[in-house]
Design brief:
Blueprint: E1 30-33, H1 39-49, E2 55-58, E3 61-64, E4 67-69, E5 77-80, E6 88-92, H2 108-111, E7 115-117, E8 123-131, E9 149-151, E10 156-164, E11 170-172, E12 182-186, E13 189-192, E14 197-199, E15 202-206, E16 209-212, E17 223-228, E18 238-241, E19 244-247, E20 254-257, E21 271-275, E22 278-279, E23 302-306, H3 326-329, H4 334-338
Parallel strand pairs: 1-2, 2-5, 3-6, 4-7, 5-8, 6-8, 7-9, 8-10, 9-11, 10-12, 10-13, 11-14, 12-15, 13-16, 14-17, 15-18, 16-19, 17-20, 18-21, 19-22, 21-23
């Protein structure tokens, strides 16, 4: 993609038009990006200027580009200019199997992401991150993972963010196999089909809406919401609390989760707790979990539920739906998972 690097703004933001960036007030550390500008150019400016605690305000519009926030942009806030995340959209269309323009190979799953961040203390709010790559448009590609957001870095916070894709929408991961990076997602809308919330992070999803898409396939299940890959040493993985799971597919077409044990980390012990959440009829209530590989059966993983409701939460075969006790549920809270971080 040929990126345009023109950013426009006003007091405290970029005020250049086709020239080098200038700042009205460096102390404010605020950049504004408007349609025709580039979010990545703003991030690059933050890195070039140094320091932490910058805010990038993205004004309503669609920004078709890949955005990569490096570790040097610590404590960055990226936000839409309005409180409606539909107004501001960052979108691109790379997939795992998409060939890189330089001929060096394909992007891979993580490399397909529209939005990537390794910055500690990241805050994202009030915008949409999307990957609009479609399987039907690329029948020649078998690596169909197409990530909207690939997030590592401790204390990464997303509020009122829409995350849209199909397979592997949100890759909530860590900076290293030994890191216990914490993520917090609140009031977010996350949409996809196969394993569309996956990774190794210690992540809390509070008041989030997960929506499963209808797939034109002849098999079941059509997909899974979660695929955690928690490190064995990490006491906590994914926690979904006080949320909502809806579906555009037929009843029972989706599983809650399957465990992901990566080939590069065969000691992983995936952890998922879904509690106090409404599960719609799109979830298979009888067998809500499935194996990714039979060598790692879901029954040996840390999959638990507590206090869920809705047609997808009916417990008809108890051994298929392990539940927390009330005492155990007291441990699985936002405060326990996030520790001394209070977003």
């Amino acid at each position: 993609m040929r990126r345009r690097t023109l950013l426009t703004g006003f007091a405290g933001g970029l005020i250049a038009g086709g020239t080098a960036p200038a700042f009205a007030s460096a102390a404010r550390r605020v950049l504004h990006v408007r349609p025709g500008g580039s979010v990545q150019a703003a991030v690059d400016t933050v890195v070039a200027r140094g320091g932490t605690g910058w805010t990038v305000v993205v004004h309503p519009g669609t920004y078709r580009e890949v955005v990569n926030i490096p570790v040097q942009a610590a404590e960055l806030t990226l936000r839409g200019a309005t409180r409606d995340p539909r107004d501001t959209v960052i979108v691109y269309d790379n997939a795992n199997g998409t060939q890189k323009p330089d001929g060096s190979g394909t992007y891979g799953t993580a490399g397909s992401a529209t939005f990537t961040s390794a910055a500690p203390g990241l805050t994202v709010r009030d915008l949409t991150l999307a990957n609009d790559w479609l399987r039907a448009d690329h029948p020649e590609i078998t690596g169909t993972q197409a990530v909207a957001a690939y997030v590592t870095g401790d204390r990464s916070q997303f509020t009122r963010v829409r995350l849209l894709a199909h397979q592997d929408t949100l890759f909530a991961d860590t900076t290293a196999l030994t890191a216990f990076d914490r993520h917090y997602y609140r009031d977010c809308y996350i949409e996809g089909d196969v394993d569309f919330v996956f990774g190794r992070a210690r992540a809390v999803f509070e008041h989030c809406h997960f929506h499963t898409l209808d797939r034109d396939v002849a098999f079941k299940p059509e997909g899974m919401v979660f695929a955690p890959a928690t490190a064995r040493a990490n006491p906590y993985g994914f926690l979904a609390v006080r949320g909502l799971v809806t579906s555009g597919a037929e009843d029972g077409a989706y599983k809650i989760a399957r465990p992901w044990v990566p080939s590069y980390e065969t000691t992983a012990w995936p952890s998922l707790v879904v509690r106090d959440t409404w599960l719609g009829p799109g979830i298979d209530a009888v067998t809500p979990y499935i194996n990714m590989r039979d060598a790692y059966p879901w029954q040996t993983m840390r999959f638990r539920e507590y206090g869920n409701s809705g047609p997808g939460a009916v417990i008809s075969v108890p051994e298929n739906r392990p539940q927390l006790t009330a005492a155990e549920a007291d441990e699985h809270t936002r405060h326990t998972y996030l520790g001394d971080w209070c977003p």
